[in-house]
Structures are given as structure tokens and as C-alpha cells.
Amino acid sequence: DTGVSQNPRHKITKRGQNVTFRCDPISEHNRLYWYRQTLGQGPEFLTYFQNEAQLEKSRLLSDRFSAERPKGSFSTLEIQRTEQGDSAMYLCASSLIGEQFFGPGTRLTVL
Amino acid sequence: GIQVEQSPPDLILQEGANSTLRCNFSDSVNNLQWFHQNPWGQLINLFYIPSGTKQNGRLSATTVATERYSLLYISSSQTTDSGVYFCAVTGGTSYGKLTFGQGTILTVHP
To answer: For position A1, what pLDDT does the model report?
Structure first.
């Protein structure tokens, strides 16, 4: 059990560029979650998958954001046409039943 | 959606002191977790405690689901306990997403 991993750990991009993050959950976990955390705030839910099905999406997830989990294993989160307000820590978590376990996060800075 | 409030927002202690952090939530919950966020942003699981009492070393937690609150106790605090403590719940109409409180910033001085 190597835990949840996320790549890259840091991403600096220019406004208007597209970025993609990857999350690899704990191997036997069927649920995968994405959250976003800005400075001084608690994490906010974005979306979650059970196997490959996307079951819930937050209203925070604008049409510039898309997430996939094509084979029910790893997941990608893409942000198109990035804005400075997208700068945040993007956290991924996975679970089997109840308890969620988080990865180290990807810190995005949009210049 | 479900609301989560944590108190106090900030707590400053001397090493060796005890502390209690509180988490109030507005609806019935299916899941309640306490996390410690380290300086690098990693959320470390402390307790998964939708009800009852658990202990792990110097830390313990109690959730009284019927009264919609949870408490995290830290005894004999150490400087390494410093950081942000989050309470997060799954409840109401959602069984998947965690709703986080604003956190308690704990600073332990030597």
C-alpha cells in the first residue's frame, strides 16, 4: 500500500494555458475524489467517481474543468483556459467504504 | 448542504498543555474524520469517527452524533503537534463528498 499519489506536485502556468493533473488512488479503492484548497480555507469538494462513473460534481466545477477516470483506476483533472483564480492546491483522495485518504496534492500557480 | 463549524479558530499552547478542539455540524452524518494538515499541505488522517470514542496515543476523539458535535483532545502537547486541524463530514443528501470546517490553527511553543 503506497498511498495516494499525485503528479505533478507543483505546476506553474500562464493564464489561458491548459493544465492536467493525475491522481493514482490506493490500489483496491473504488472511490476517487477531487478537492481544491485555497490559502486559509478548508478543502472544497469538486467531484467524485465510483469506479469509472462520475457520481457527483460541485457547482464549483465550471465548464473549464473536466475530470475522468476511464478504467476505474487513475484519474485526471484538466483545467482549460486557466485563470489566476484557479491558483490553489488540488487534492485527490480515495476510499473503499467510508474513510478517505488524501494524496500530497498538486499546487497550481497561474501567472 | 451540511454546515461544519470548528472552534476555536486559533489556539496557542505551551508544550505539555492539553487542549480540546470542537466540531459542530448541522445535519446527521454518515462519516466524520479528523485530519492534521502538515506544513507541506498533506492531510494526515487522525480519526474516522462517525460516532463513539477512539484513542490513539496522546490523541483521542469523541463524536456525539445525536447532538451533532465531535471533540478532538490533545494531551501533553508537543511542538510537532503544531499545524491546522480539520474536521470533515459526509452527510445530509450526499454520501460521497466530505464537507470541511475552516480548521483550527494550533501553535505549540517550547
So the answer is: 55
* Distance between B31 CA and the closest CA of chain A, angstroms: 6
**Segment B55-77, tens digit of pLDDT:** 999 999 999 999 999 999 999 99
Computed over every residue of chain B, the mean pLDDT equals 95
Q: Is A33 within 8 Å of chain B by CB?
A: yes
A29, A23, A101, A10: which is closest to B43 by C-alpha? A101
Angstrom distance (rounded) from CA A109 to CA A10: 8
Taking 3-state DSSP, the helix, strand and coil percentages for chain B, each rounded to the nearest 5, stand at 5, 60, 35
Cell 491548459 appears where? Answer: A18
Task: Give the Å distances, CA to CA, from A89 to A34, A65, A67, B88.
Answer: 11, 15, 16, 17
Which position has the grid cell 467531484?
A47
Q: Does A44 touch chain B (CB under 8 A)?
A: yes
